[in-house]
Specification:
Shape of chain A: elongated
Protein name (chains A, B): GntR family transcriptional regulator
Organism (chains A, B): Virgisporangium ochraceum
CATH class of the largest domain in chain A: Alpha Beta
Number of domains of chain A: 2
GO molecular function (chains A, B): DNA binding; DNA-binding transcription factor activity
Radius of gyration of chain A: 22 Å
CATH topology of the largest domain in chain A: Chorismate lyase
Number of strands of chain A: 10
Keywords (chains A, B): DNA-binding, Transcription, Transcription regulation
Number of helices of chain A: 8
Strand order of the largest sheet of chain A: 4-5-6-9-8-7
Helix content of chain A: 25-40%
Oligomer: homodimer
Structural class of chain A: alpha+beta
DNA sequence: TAGTGGTCTAGACCACAGG
DNA sequence: CTGTGGTCTAGACCACTAT
């Protein structure tokens, strides 16, 4: 009735991390040493540590060894998007927030024309084969990729506008959309939790065992027409999503 | 410059799932067959499939084989909590929502006195060693565990109240709290994303590769005093979190 | 260059549930 | 009973990077 050896190894270090015997940044013994200590083959040790890597508790830094993972959360507030701003802001909201903490924000921006597909078609009330403008950005803090923000617009709305240019827009796309006559008055936020795709792992430099939150932000005009759908991919080890509610 | 064999195997089936060649519920070839097809050892096949299990794309059902995972999301609306309800509701909100879709909701309830600890202490503005009442529930749909809802209260507020009894409360703890003079007027929702603890895996019957969203709901009275902090653990493969915003 | 983790093999035995 | 996945071993070679 005993647990398999690799699970005992995992449980041992999971416990040491939970109780603080091992703290973030601390190094674990090498696979070789653990094989000796537990009297098992190295592959068995690897299976055990693999469990903890999958749980996001430790990371392998070759050829240094295994380390207890350190995490730092930035606050992510979807509601900020619908709060008033100065008419001519110096920076977009993300840059503002990061710069306020003394760090350096930056972007990579890319604009593409794509087929809507099922997810976007449903939210923007288009045909799945309709063309949408995808404004794809990766946001960086101090050069480290932090999250993905892909905004999508029906092409009829934004043709020939600034939104089509892969350049930084200090006042934000929402403002541009409003100037085009599509001011948003209502939005729906949907959050899914899943493991990242290989593409997301690549774009965000994610380690194994890092789940992501996918935040769909669909904006509607006063007449109820959806004009914008943003897909934000937030690595779980870097974000804390915050909402605020008031009773009515 | 070729990818390792186990990654090619993972990529092969990841692709077939993404493109719909393999659909949810479909079975994969056996480890033995794949070892033959790819000309590698069975352990190598296991490493490849292990990647996909970790990504939550497939599940192993011994001794049947590997299957493409099926997922179904229930809608989770934190904002509902601050919407008005009938004075004497027949069921709590969760049961109402589930029963409305023709399924059967149920609960397991357990009440414990615990030390607050760092997370709760910070949110309830207590000392980490202070005692709080933990009302721990697992919510089931058709007998399947669906999510965890652990509500916490400073003991001074709820001593001798119904909240201390491990019994179903149709009108909900928020109402009881209001009757005790601690009506909530404001709440903060925080959402974290991470891999589940072994305890959560056990309580929720989670498969490998299933991340969870942890939703902290902290409620405040009109005077700004925190009176309640609920920790909801939502398996990523079963939930879609939805908020709604209106421009002000 | 030494030592780390990353990959792979070719066996083996086991527990479990379906036919 | 048969075949599945689950676990384990004792080797081997490789790629990478800190020193």
């Amino acid at each position: 009735m005993e647990a398999p050896a690799y699970q005992r190894i995992a449980a041992t270090f999971r416990g040491r991390i939970a109780t603080g015997v091992l703290r973030p940044g601390d190094q674990l013994p090498t696979e070789h040493d653990l094989a000796d200590q537990f009297g098992v083959a190295r592959q068995t040790v690897r299976a055990g540590l693999g469990v903890l890597v999958g749980e996001g508790l430790i990371v392998a830094r070759r050829p240094r060894g295994y380390f207890v993972r350190e995490r730092e959360h930035m606050v992510y507030r979807p509601q900020e998007k619908s709060r008033p701003r100065p008419a001519v802001p110096e920076m977009d909201r993300f840059s503002e927030q990061i710069a306020a903490t003394g760090r350096t924000p930056s972007y990579s921006i890319e604009v593409a024309l794509i087929e809507a597909g099922a997810d976007l078609a449903e939210r923007l009330r288009l045909d799945p084969s309709a063309t949408v403008v995808a404004r794809r950005r990766v946001r960086y803090i101090n050069g480290e990729p932090t999250n993905i923000n892909d905004s999508h617009f029906p092409i009829d709305l934004v043709r020939d506008s600034e939104i089509m240019l892969p350049a930084y827009l200090a006042r934000g796309t929402d403002r541009v959309l409003a100037e085009l006559g599509y001011a948003q008055h209502r939005a729906i936020d949907e959050i899914f939790v899943r493991m990242p795709t290989p593409d997301e792992v690549h774009r965000l430099g994610l380690g194994p065992g890092t789940p992501v939150a996918v935040h769909f932000d669909t904006g509607y005009t006063e007449s109820g027409r959806p004009v914008q759908c943003a897909v934000n991919v937030l690595p779980g080890d870097r974000h804390r999503i915050v909402f605020e509610r008031h009773w009515s």
